[in-house]
Write the structure tokens for this entry.
Amino acid sequence: MLVKYWMKKDVATIDANSSMHQAVNLMKKSGSSILPVTKKGKLVGIVTDRDMKRASASDATSLDVHELVYLLSQIKVGDIMTRNPVTVAPDTTLEETASILLEKNISGVPVLDADTIVGLITQQDLFRALISLTGFEKRGVQFAFNVEDRPGSVKEVTDIVRNYGGRLVSILTSYERSEPGRRNVYVRAYDVDRDAAPKLVEELRSKAKLLYMVDHRDNKREEFISST
């Protein structure tokens, strides 16, 4: 799960000497709320729609539309950009990137290969990756278990799902909200027989602590045991 497989590759950039008005138009054209800012081809900052709103907010309420356009044409991107922006490399993992965005409270970062801008990765891209990697796009059924933290405990429950025709598309595990010596397991599967679902649930509950089941095919949700 590397950034290079999920980043936007056709990245619109803007020169530091360009005006805010040009930046606004470029954001509209590119559909991006983040623009890497360059000077002589090198990354020197980033500018966001929030930066531009903040830069013009104090004066905008007292201006008519022509005066506002003039204001935007006079302020340079280099005057309002964030300098020395946070960046990531193409081989940075999505998890590392998500941690950086969360820690810095930012919505996206340029992707640099050496000194060359090769992409842009945003929160939206991370959400898209999450949906794809968990298999949610095709819906299916998700089961959540709390199992012993020992070899084979995950296979025991996934084998049962397979025996009922389930095609496993994702298996995620976590120690969060689980007592010592146990872990939570989240399994998503396709092609689970609806008619056999009650028997499947019964068998799963005999093998492990089944926390919940969500059948996204018909939005059926059932909670069995609350996790700690």
In short: The radius of gyration is 24 Å. The chain has eight helices and eleven strands. The longest strand covers residues 182-190. The chain has a mean pLDDT of 89.
